[in-house]
Design brief:
binds flavin-adenine dinucleotide; four-stranded antiparallel sheet; Flavocytochrome C3, Chain A, domain 1; Methane Monooxygenase Hydroxylase, Chain G, domain 1; alpha+beta
């Protein structure tokens, strides 16, 4: 990571604050942070990409990978404004489309009020599944806590104390919070949920005792980690967290699994590499550093692989391309039918009802059968009034592919595993099974689900 920071600095990334690297020790999953002004990182990445001659296509949604003789040879894309189909021929592909949002019902009733990118529907993972890539930990989910009404990841940045309705701190320590030590309750979804269930809610984030200096620092930090809109909203509503406690609760579940590439970021599918938010374990941690480091490794591996391969004759993919175009046209030409909101909502309902806190064989089977029915019906009836809606329909199908994998993997893991951050509970298998202290590897071969158990280590 150190080398990567040095390199990114040469691209203009302002990693230093007042001339120094600003390391902050915290009670958090990550023991030590480096705080920096990362707000413009996407702009800086784009500038660098253009500088080295990269073609950038905006508002193009990648629909699926194209394969020839078991190898990924390109991808199919669709314009989200104009009805244009893009056929990309490539000697290697890096998947970097982020994590899975919107697969469970939202914490508030607004589907796009999500802690993470709401249009990150695990498209890369779904495309990977369809291409035969191996996935792990799709049966595990975690939860995060944060402000109740405007869901945003970044709770670790709050310099305040989580209190119950009566004003008692959940952690028992009113002075727990400062710039160098966040309140432990911020970190714990379990504490937040337990206090709520014990009748202590509503719960609040209180910055009433936060010093002015720490509060200003917190606002600076929030503005640099994607919470600018939250600060703006508080401002627009006339809410000053130093005077008013803001309601705090736990968010919807978030699947922690994804691609399981090797340390060179190569997947089991030749020509396909993966990095960032859609990868699991040591290589993910839901954080940017893994995207910086493994994104670069994936890029280098892809270049290496590309040098050893030639461009494929895309005529061999014409059947797949025609199938996709036909499906898109059917959705566009239907004048009546179901909309993407119904398809996404049905998928979320299945995940929330059959594959969430309470899991057992009958429930998982029922959820799986229901999902197959929903997908069949969606294929027959979904209609899209424009390119934007077409994209949303495709997201719904991607979510269904991941939901199917999550249901099947949850059925396969016949045990209860009480990990701290993403516990897995089966009512009908209440004990931990030592033989299952492994990754459950899921893939699809010839349209059939395939499973194997793999030791939890990063492969070379
Ligand atoms: C509010 C918030 C605060 C955060 N704070 C921090 C923090 O302080 N520190 C930290 O280290 N990490 C933080 N994270 C996590 C960090 O943002 C992610 O780990 C990181 O962005 C992952 O990078 P990525 O490139 O893998 O995915 P992303 O940044 O999610 O990028 C994926 C891109 O793929 C695009 N995409 C998706 N599907 C398709 C498709 N089908 N076709 C074409 N394009 C597609 C998306 O539009 C997106 O632009 C935060 C996340 C959130 C949401």
């Amino acid at each position: 990571m150190g080398d990567r920071i040095k390199e990114l600095e040469t691209w203009g990334f302002p990693f230093k604050t007042n001339g120094k690297y600003n390391f902050v020790k915290k009670i958090h999953r990550v023991p030590s942070f480096m705080h920096w002004a990362g707000r413009d990182q996407k702009v800086l990445f784009e500038q660098k990409a253009r500088e080295v001659g990269t073609d950038i296509l905006n508002r193009v949604m990648i629909i699926d990978l194209l394969k020839q003789n078991g190898r990924v040879v390109g991808a199919l894309g669709m314009g989200l404004r104009e009805p244009i189909i893009y056929i990309f021929s490539s000697r290697a592909v890096v998947m970097a489309s982020g994590g899975i949002s919107r697969i469970f019902p939202p914490a508030t009733c607004l589907d796009f009020n999500r802690q993470r990118l709401p249009f990150g529907t695990g498209d890369g993972i779904a495309m990977g599944i369809r291409a035969g890539a191996e996935m792990v930990r799709l049966e595990f989910f975690t939860r995060w806590a944060g402000l109740h009404n405007l869901c945003k990841a970044g709770r670790g940045t709050w310099i305040g104390v989580v209190e119950d309705a009566a004003g008692n701190p959940l952690s028992g320590n009113r002075n727990a919070s400062s710039r160098t030590q966040i309140d432990a309750a911020v970190e714990s979804y379990d504490d937040v949920t337990k206090a709520w269930r014990d009748g202590r809610g509503p719960l609040y984030m209180s910055c009433l005792n936060t010093s002015r200096e720490d509060f200003d620092y917190m606002c600076w930090a929030l503005s640099n980690e994607g919470n600018q809109v939250l600060l703006q909203q508080l401002h627009d509503c006339g809410l000053d967290p130093r005077r008013t406690r803001i309601e705090f609760s736990s968010y919807e579940p978030e699947i922690t699994g994804g691609f399981a590439p090797d340390t060179k970021c190569a997947t089991n599918v030749p020509g396909l590499f993966a990095a960032g938010g859609e990868v699991i374990g040591n290589m993910k941690r839901s954080a940017s550093p893994s995207a910086y480091v493994f994104g670069k490794i994936a890029g280098e591996s892809a270049v290496h692989s590309a040098r050893e391969n030639v461009f494929a004759d895309m005529k061999s993919c014409s059947e797949t391309i025609a199938w996709h175009i036909d499906r898109l046209q059917r959705m566009r030409l239907r004048t009546q039918g179901a909309r993407w909101q119904e398809a996404t909502g049905a998928c979320q309902d299945i995940m929330g009802t059959y594959c969430c806190e309470t899991k057992y064989e009958n429930l998982l089977n029922a959820g799986y059968e229901q999902l197959l029915r929903v997908r069949r019906r969606a294929e027959q009836t979904l209609c899209a009034a424009g390119q934007h809606e077409l994209g949303r329909c495709l997201e719904a199908f991607n979510l269904m592919d991941i939901a199917e994998a999550a249901l099947l993997c949850s059925r396969e893991r016949r045990e209860t595993r009480l990990n701290r951050y993403d516990p897995f509970r089966r009512v009908d298998h209440a004990e931990e099974n030592p033989a299952m202290d492994k990754f459950l590897v899921y893939s699809r071969k010839d349209n059939q689900a395939s499973f194997r158990w793999r030791a939890m280590r990063v492969l070379n």
